[in-house]
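Weekly modeling sync, notes
Attendees: AB, CL, MP (scribe)

Item 1: holo prediction request
CL wants a bound-state model with acetyl coenzyme *A before deciding which constructs to order. AB pointed out that an apo prediction alone won't tell us much about the pocket. Agreed to run with the ligand included and paste results into these notes for async review.

Input as submitted:
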Amino acid sequence: MSVRAVVRGVGHYLPERVVPNSEFEKSLDTTDEWIRTRSGIERRHFAAEGQTTSDLATRAARATLTDAGLEPADLDAVIVATSTADFTFPSAATMVQAELGMTGGFAFDVQAVCAGFVFALANANALIVSGQARRVLVIGAETFSRIMDWTDRSTCVLFGDGAGALILEATKGAGTPEDRGILATDLNSDGRFRDILYVDGGVSTGTTGHLRMEGKEVFRHAIEKLAKTAHTALDKAGLDGADVDWVVPHQANIRIITGTAKKMGVPMDNVVVTVQDHGNTSAASIPLALYVGRQRGQIKEGDLIVTEAIGGGLAWGAVVLRW
Ligand code: ACO
């Protein structure tokens, strides 16, 4: 027997405002066609003025609690994966905790940029299997529209805002790959590559700063590192590519998604793709895709899912879970 962190609920929130690619044609030397063919993105959501990451996260949290049939007091912990918290501190997670009216338990943020949700899932899993928490709300929430340089066509057309969440619950399993819940995790980072994707602001500059990316360089690392971490996580679980029902990748670029699936030996029919509708929502992209995948009827109870993501740091990783 072993304790598994099993998905009890899933939810999301996307801001109302939808921005199609064509809107960027008015202010930048770009086209809908370029954005579509180079990234797969067709539209994205942007938060309203004054709407913060913790607002988005709280809405996703409420939807997830409803899906799970739980109250805030039933949770032991709240983890928010984000790089765009409302303030330097407190954490977005404690703001969500307060908004939910939750006065017990604990809350903290995880900052691993686009890989944030994968890192947060691994943390939540560790808390659950070690007996430190029974139910953990894991949220990915971002407002990347706040850190865009609107004059930089190579970055500002790629990102969007949103939030998605899961509730993980301690459940007894047989200790086999047939168990529901998180079966394996694999986390990596390599700070030597910190300069190819970063924000040029923060405490050291006294400004919020803007996202800077050498897209081609990130691309060069992405497919190989993502396929390798997915393979390693599957290996740790005693499984391989043929066992996978759904790859739920970080949604940054359709060419990275297809390239990684090919390297993993998984057909695109078994990949949940939402990049066309959300753009790159960083740490929110995987929980948003999990939500959409379930809504579309793609993801069903018992399915084997691999999530994988890479982002600033570089930081990357994968989680294997049975839904
Ligand atoms: N519209 C029109 N032309 C553009 C645009 C635009 N919006 N942006 C760039 N271009 C131009 C470039 O200036 C370049 O022109 P040049 O050849 O005259 O210099 C040309 O298009 C080709 O640019 P590339 O950078 O070579 O285009 P590429 O095919 O590499 O696609 C992209 C760029 C989409 C950024 C891609 O490299 C990519 O997706 N990279 C990975 C990004 C990623 O995955 N990030 C994940 C982590 S995000 C996080 O952690 C926060």
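Recorded for review: The domain at 2-173 is CATH 3.40.47.10 (Peroxisomal Thiolase; Chain A, domain 1).
Action items: CL to compare against the apo run; MP to circulate these notes.
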